[in-house]
């Protein structure tokens, strides 16, 4: 009896200590003290009850460090250890997806079914998990049909997501309708979102883009103008006003003013370039019939951004 009691006590102490270690590791992870957290998670063997969780957190850290192949390996190990946890499948799909963006076309073809499978299993395990639904919807939207892309499935899942998260579901529904060429339906979704978030720049940009796709330029300009009255310093909307004015030939004076303001701004990563602003400004001058000034602006645009093919084509057209 003493031997059994001693064994059970030792087992309890080991289990309790391991649980404490896991909690400590999670706390360090949440504090982004990754080096310390890794030391704790890596000591848990594959026969330990918390091994899957340890692999999951190691994967999360690798993902944050943009080591997507390593992250996929950790998440895959977590799934192999416990395939009943939806979030493990979600992060496995996310890691494969991020890795695929950096991979060759051949590698992308190999990874595609793995991404799809991970997200589908995630949704099968937890159909109310917004991350899982969003990941699967994005896959169905972006992947070609021969790799499992399916806009009808994307639509069905986006409707389910909208019941859980109206904003996120609405945005995805609008994207799907746009890809299907159903621009009126896309506009309806965006307008619904705009009614709920009238002062949100991202929403205004999305709705404006939907109008431009349908060549409803005046509606886009009115939308941007109303937003700028309340938010005159928003350069993303200012640029879009100038761009739409340049494309449509409407409200050219205000379009020029918006683009001139943008030229004094330092764009963040992912925002339109200064070269792009010079190009749109050149379009405005060309529409006014001032070809000499337009040509100078196109040249400046190319100097600012040598990869700006539209400006190169415009300059050739005017030579």
Verbal overview:
By secondary structure, this protein is mostly helical. The chain is 78% helix and 0% strand. It has 17 helices and no strands. α6 packs antiparallel against α7 (130-142), α11 runs parallel beside α13 (235-248) and α16 runs antiparallel to α17. The longest helix is centred in the N-terminal third of the chain and has 29 residues, at 2-30.
How would you summarize what this structure contains?
The chain is mostly helical and 319 residues long. It has 17 helices and no strands.
How is this fold's topology laid out?
Layout: H1 2-30, H2 34-41, H3 51-64, H4 68-81, H5 86-101, H6 105-125, H7 130-142, H8 151-164, H9 166-179, H10 183-196, H11 201-213, H12 217-230, H13 235-248, H14 252-263, H15 274-287, H16 291-304, H17 309-318
Helix pairs in contact: 1-2, 1-3, 2-3, 3-4, 4-5, 5-6, 6-7, 7-8, 7-9, 8-9, 9-10, 10-11, 11-12, 11-13, 12-13, 13-14, 13-15, 14-15, 15-16, 16-17
């Amino acid at each position: 009896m003493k031997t059994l009691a001693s064994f059970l006590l030792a087992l309890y102490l080991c289990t309790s200590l391991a649980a404490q270690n896991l909690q400590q590791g999670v706390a360090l992870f949440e504090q982004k003290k990754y080096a310390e957290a890794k030391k704790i998670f890596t000591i848990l063997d594959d026969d330990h009850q918390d091994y899957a969780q340890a692999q999951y957190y190691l994967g999360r850290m690798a993902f944050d460090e943009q080591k997507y192949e390593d992250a996929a390996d950790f998440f895959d190990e977590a799934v192999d250890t416990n395939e009943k946890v939806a979030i493990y499948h979600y992060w496995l799909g996310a890691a494969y997806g991020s890795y695929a963006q950096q991979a060759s076309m051949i590698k992308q073809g190999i990874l595609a079914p793995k991404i799809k499978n991970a997200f589908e299993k995630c949704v099968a395990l937890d159909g109310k998990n917004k991350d899982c639904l969003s990941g699967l919807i994005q896959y169905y939207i972006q992947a070609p049909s021969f790799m499992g892309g399916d806009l009808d499935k994307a639509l069905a899942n986006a409707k389910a997501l909208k019941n859980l998260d109206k904003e996120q579901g609405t945005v995805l529904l609008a994207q799907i309708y746009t890809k299907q060429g159903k621009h009126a339906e896309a506009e309806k979704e965006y307008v619904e979102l705009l009614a709920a978030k009238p002062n949100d720049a991202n929403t205004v940009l999305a709705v404006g883009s939907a109008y431009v796709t349908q060549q409803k330029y005046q509606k886009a300009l009115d939308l941007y103008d109303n937003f700028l009255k309340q938010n005159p310093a928003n350069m993303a909307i200012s640029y879009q006003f100038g761009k739409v004015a340049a494309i449509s030939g409407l409200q050219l004076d205000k379009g020029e003013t918006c683009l001139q303001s943008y030229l004094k701004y330092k764009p963040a990563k992912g925002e339109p370039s200064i070269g792009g602003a010079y190009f749109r400004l050149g379009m405005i001058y060309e529409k006014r019939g001032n070809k000499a000034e337009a040509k100078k602006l196109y040249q400046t645009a190319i100097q600012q951004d040598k990869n700006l093919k539209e400006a190169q084509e415009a300059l050739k057209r005017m030579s």
